[in-house]
Amino acid sequence: MNHSIIELFGKTITVTLMQPTDFNEINQWCIDEGWNIGIHDSEIYYKIDPIHHYIAKTNESIASLSLIKHSPAFFTLGPFIVHKSCRRQGVGEALWNVGMTQIIKEYPDAHIALYAVSEQVERYKKADFIPVLSIQRWYIDSSQLISPSMSDQCTSISNKLIPSICQYYQNHYVTNRELLLKELILKPKTNGFVFMDDKVIKGFGFIRPCVSGFRIGALIADTPEIAQTLIAELLILAQSAPVFIDVPGSNLHGIHCMNAFHAVRAPQEDTIMMIKGTGYSSYLKQWKQHYGLFSLEIG
C-alpha cells in the first residue's frame, strides 16, 4: 500500500504507512490518554512488522492504527488512537476500514487478536471480533518487598539462551517469538530471568520500563511456584518503583500468585481479549501457564 485518500466532511485525509519517526508523536498521544506504555515497545513492534502501521494525516497527523503481523495466520491490533481534536468525526472508523481491508485482502484467513476495554467490546463485536478471554490488571508495590536471595535456579537471560527460550515460548504461544526476544534484551533497563531445572527450562520472565514504573511480562511458568520465584527475582530490578502485570483469566493460579505479593487489583483497567476468525480454541489452551502478558498490543 502506497497511500489511500479519504474524503470526510470536506476534508481530504491521506492514509500512509507509518515511519519510525511517526511513533514519537503517536506515543505522546497514548501517554496523554493515560496509557502506561512501554518506553521502547513501539520500536519492537516496528521491528516485528514494519509494513502494517497506518497513519492518517491532513496537514498534520490525526490518527494511527497498528496491525502487527506475527505470521501469515496471526495478527494483533496495536495502538489505535485518534487525536483528541478529531474524535467523533468518523476518522477512526475510516482508518480502521482502510487497515482492516488491507489485511483481509492480503491474508484472508488470518486471525486478528485485540485487547479491548469493557466499553469497547460491543463496538468490536460489530466488526466480528469475539470475546474469548478476560485479562486482569494487577499492581505490585516493589518498595514494600524484602529482597530475597537469588535463586540458584534462575539465570539472567542472555543472547546465548534465546534459542532455547524461544523453543519453550513457542510451546505456549501461537507463533515464533525469537525476534521479539532478541529485540527485548537489547533495550535499556530491560532484564529477564529463566528458571531451569537440571538444564531444562521451566519458565521465564521479563521486566521493562514503562512511562510509570515497570511491567512484568511476558511471564510463563510450568508451576505457580516457579512463577513466584521469577516474579520475586524480577521485582528486585524494579528498584522500589511500582510494577504492573496483566494476568490471563484462564490461568487458575494467577490470583493466588498475585496475592503472594500483596498485589492490588485494578479492575477498571481490565481488558477482554477478542479474536476475529474461526478455529482459535487450540490457541487459547496455550495461555494456561501465562502469568503475565508481554503487552496489550501483542499479547
UniProtKB/TrEMBL annotation:
Keyword presence, Transferase: yes
Keyword Transport annotated: no
GO molecular function: acyltransferase activity, transferring groups other than amino-acyl groups
Matches recorded under InterPro entries: Acyl/Acetyltrans_Enzymes (IPR052729), Acyl_CoA_acyltransferase (IPR016181), GNAT_dom (IPR000182), YitH/HolE_GNAT (IPR041496)
Span of domain N-acetyltransferase: 13-155
Matches recorded under SUPFAM superfamilies: Acyl-CoA N-acyltransferases (Nat)
Pfam family, one: Acetyltransf_10
Domain of life the protein comes from: Bacteria
Coiled coil: none
Keywords: Transferase
Name this polypeptide is given: GNAT family acetyltransferase
Lineage, uppermost ranks: Bacteria, Pseudomonadati, Pseudomonadota, Gammaproteobacteria, Legionellales
